[in-house]
Amino acid sequence: MRVFLEGVGIVGPGLPDWVASRAVLAGEDAYRPGPTVVAPSELLPPAERRRAPLAVRLALAAGQEAFRNAGRDVASTATVFASSSSDGDTLHQMCEMLATAEREVSPTRFHNSVHNAAAGYWSIATRCRKPSTSLACYDASFAAGLLEAAVQVATSGAPVGLIAYDQPYPEPLHSARPVAASFGAALVLTPESGERAFAALEIDFFAEPARATPMSDPALEATRLDNPAARALSLLATLARKRGGSVVLDYLSGAHLRIGASPC
Amino acid sequence: MQALAISHFSIVNSLGAGAEAVLLGLREKRSGLRACDFDTAAIDTYIGRVPGLEDSPVRADLAEFDCRNNRLVQRCLEQDGFGERIAQARDRYGAGRIGVFLGTSTSGIHTTELAYRRREPRTGALPADYHYAETQNAFSLGEFVRRYSGLNGPAFVVSSACSSTAKVFGNAARMITAGVCDAALVGGADSLCLTTLYGFRSLELTSRGPCRPYDAERDGISVGEGAGLALLERADRAPSGTVRLLGVGESSDAYHMSTPHPEGLGAKLAMRQALDSAGLQPSDIDYVNLHGTATKTNDASEDRAVVEVFGRDTPCSSTKGSTGHLLGAAGITEAIISILAIENNFMPGSANTRTVDPSLRCRYLLEVREGRVRCVLTNSFGFGGSNCSLILGRNE
């Protein structure tokens, strides 16, 4: 399947946004890992900017940057949200509360616990009534989301925004599912090579194992492997180099995605 | 859209295990709901519980995946010859050409709830026998079914609350249309847990008795559990007479996280898109299987949307009085109920509903109705304003 890329958004450890991170991902500047700084989203009303769960703010930050870079209208674009575990803080708080005698669950916490909470906040904030899919595929959530988004573009002939995000769990879940740093990555994909498209992506599914394309920098490779959404880094690095190339993304046990990226 | 054949399916919920039992329950307008007796939940409500799950662990070679949710889906794989049907499809298409697109809202969260009650007192650590990836994670269901069935096509789990297992029909249809796979296993499961029981209670949305959709005195949902699976193939690869997926419509409310748009704006969009994608008019639909959760606001909002799209003559009913609200599994459950209605030419009545709310205006069926059913539209709406309507119909 061939789709075109109009915009990228990223927020990760030492990677504040796509514009500021491009030279690092292209290997031109040194990578300095640091905490993931998630700016309060202008999409949310002021009262909700800091109160919204981290998972939601992460998704909104990456998504908003990708749409801004693409110059695309958010309200008229369908979305795919990909996350392994969505809001880990809320899951922990719910399970902790349910282990007490009182079991006083907060209604807000309950509605934030759904996997598609970020998609819900996104559609409310952007007044977007277009279809939205929220999916999970453990470590391969980005690859699964990319495949679904590309298939949507190919079958609908309309643009799609892909937003991948994952955050660390607090203990005790952290030990069961270790993720060190929050990460968000977003792409705006379109069916045509218009003015704003800067790369063509040829995306194919193969039902056989293959070795995923690593990052050449060991610290960036550690970041890529730490968080399911950061598995986007090998593709983003190829895009940052602006020379094109082929990237293998891990998908299922016994299956992978191959992406041919070429500048346009 | 290109119509797809639904060549085989399997269903289990509190109304019955297997298509025949569920069909009989619907024909007799029975209810599978009972006073809440799940785990240690102290809530004055009714639930739809599948009996015997406590004693039915998953297949030994997949023991790490053992949780209530995967036990439920395993029931589907074991009954009605469904496992053999998958094996035949695998031989026919190849394991890598069959996609697996399943949905769930809470996956194996009950395992995590139990683990939090068994934390190591000194360190707070979870017990050593807790398997996060295989139970709690949303993809647990997908990986379990892939491994159980030996499938290796494209896969993921959709989790968009109560629209999840309706939306997977759309995912599968797109993947098949795009040529990424030739056939797909769709459906999913949701299982009882404290999160949803106490969560819906916190929103004051749990019914005190068995839920009464569209009733003037409806007071909330009866949380249920269940699973359903269906095999989708290109229509030309399935026997004629097979019920088909004709249309899919999806939308977002963009209104509120846990309350539907009061005028049913998103619901209307989803229903109209489903009709457009099927190339059908509202008058082509013989029966609407409503989302009909039995909360005050959900039923009122859906009623407005349905009447606006279909007028007041199309027969409608909710089957949640029989099954309870299966949350993430509602979509596949009601898609299969719609297929049973088409195959057997009847429209389900609404169990537990006594007096239809006079302020609701759709043609609501209290009793089972016999009659030709060619096309059914079924609605599934979820938290976050996630809406999905499916149209199923006869091959003619």
Describe this structure in words.
The complex is a heterodimer of chains A (264) and B (396). Helix content of chain A is 36%, strand content 22%. Chain A has an eight-stranded mixed sheet with strand order 3-2-4-5-1-6-8-7. In chain A, strand 7 and strand 8 form a beta hairpin. With 396 residues, chain B is α/β, with parallel strands linked by helices. Chain B has twelve helices and 16 strands. In chain B, strands 1, 2, 5, 6, 7, 8, 9, 10, 11, 13, 15 and 16 form a twelve-stranded mixed sheet that branches. Chain B has a two-stranded antiparallel ribbon with strand order 3-4. A two-stranded antiparallel ribbon of chain B has the order 12-14. In chain B, helix 2 packs parallel to helix 6, helix 7 packs across helix 12 and helix 9 crosses helix 10. Chain B is globular. Chains A and B meet through helix 4, helix 5, helix 6, strand 3 and helix 7 of A and helix 4, helix 5, helix 6, strand 6 and helix 7 of B. Strand 3 of chain A pairs antiparallel with strand 6 of chain B, so a sheet runs across the interface.
According to DSSP, the number of beta strands of chain B is: 16
- Beta-strand content estimate of chain A: 15-25%
Oligomer: heterodimer
- Helix fraction of chain A, binned, reads 25-40%
Instruction: Label the overall shape of chain B.
Output: globular
Strand content of chain B: 15-25%
Distance from first to last alpha carbon of chain A: 16 Å
User: Stretches of chain B where pLDDT falls below 50 for ≥5 residues?
Assistant: none
Q: Element order, helices and strands of chain A?
A: EHHHEHHHEHEHEEHHEE
Mean pLDDT reading of chain B = 97
